[in-house]
Amino acid sequence: MLERPYESGGEPPEVVRLGPCPKAPEISVVIPTFNRADALRQSLVALRSQTLESYEVLVVDNGPSTDHTRETVIAFAREDPRIAYVSTALQGDAFARNIGCELATGEVVVVTDDDWLMTDPEALTYVRDQFLSDARLGVLGLAHDYAAADPEAVSLASRARRTALRTFIRWGYKPTLITRWGTLRTRFRHIEAGRLLDVDHVRGYCMALRLSALRDINGFETGYVLRGHAYRGETEVCVRLALAGYRVALSTEVMGYHDARPRQKGVTGRGRFRPEAMYLQSRNNTLFFLRNFWTPGTAFLFRAVDLLWGSYRHPGLIRGLLHPRYAFKFRVLGASLRGKRDALRLYRAGPPAADAARTHSPPAFEPPLTSRDRLAPVAPLDS
User: Fold this and answer.
1) pLDDT digits over 97-131, tens only?
2) How many CB atoms are located within 10 Å of the residue 123 CB?
3) How far apart are alpha carbons 72 and 122 in whole angstroms?
4) How far is residue 99's CA from residue 88's CA, in Å, rounded to a whole number?
5) So what's the pLDDT on residue 4?
6) Cα(140)–Cα(129) distance, rounded to whole angstroms?
7) Which residues contact 197 (CB under 8 A, 6 or more apart)?
8) For site-directed labelling of 281, which of 6, 22, 77, 288 has its Cα 20 to 30 A away?
9) What is the spatial distance between Cα 52 and Cα 125, in angstroms, rounded to a whole number?
């Protein structure tokens, strides 16, 4: 069963369906959104081109939105009864994803951002066939078509580097890799078209999940939600499903377009250098590794490296002072260090402090997961 955060005292979601689906859905598409009606409209238009008919679309408006999102979705629903509008007062994409997956009736759930364009007409058919042919497949990520998005922006040096990395990938180089040092390798753009690769995580802008497997791990972890975002939440889902014995794969056989440009000033892209975005990402990245990879016996070492040098794109003290990207950006460095500190406090405190730090009242943290190398329970750090 998935988490039901509204059972803690909030209102249940409002569901608006204007008619039954013509065919029983094999796939449920869940799209969280908030005040992005124009981007959502393009996403829904792109879905119209799908050749698969047995699917439904659940647009989960988590806020709810104050623009014309509701009117936009209901207008589409009048033309296509497979589309439903879901409204909830819980803010955060993890809450929206769980609510959408709870209402889903298909065996496979495709969770996308509201700015993801399903440009390949055979995308949903391909996803259905992959899950039918492999009972172990738990997560299937679809890649963003970087070349089609802006082919002129790719420099000659970048093309040469991509060609070299594609050769290395054919020889066994892993395009994605989560390390214990707090870094993630995500070289999705260097994977050539027409590949289906086993990976350890996929990105959340378009990920297909086996609904029964997602329910086995209790859905998306809502403890990462902060100011509406759940950075690293989709990464943890991949790790938890892999530990449960499911396969995690990335496909470039069918691709789409992720138009994230309107959000580049938010918590992604160059927007990550804003103090509030750096705090969110640093906190969640450190919390993710504390929960999943840093065991009690080694946590002190990795925490020291994290605080002094940093992890992934989130600088520690020394890196923040020496690296030209962060030099003299003391507010950004301070936000990164505060995020690391608060992640440790959340992890040590357990459910009460974790719940108090959230905007709403979702269920408490689940017990930390086992580490990748040691399949033994990881106990919380000693105070």
Assistant:
1) 999 999 999 999 999 999 999 989 999 999 999 99
2) 26
3) 25
4) 9
5) 53
6) 11
7) 169, 175, 191, 249, 250, 251
8) 6
9) 6
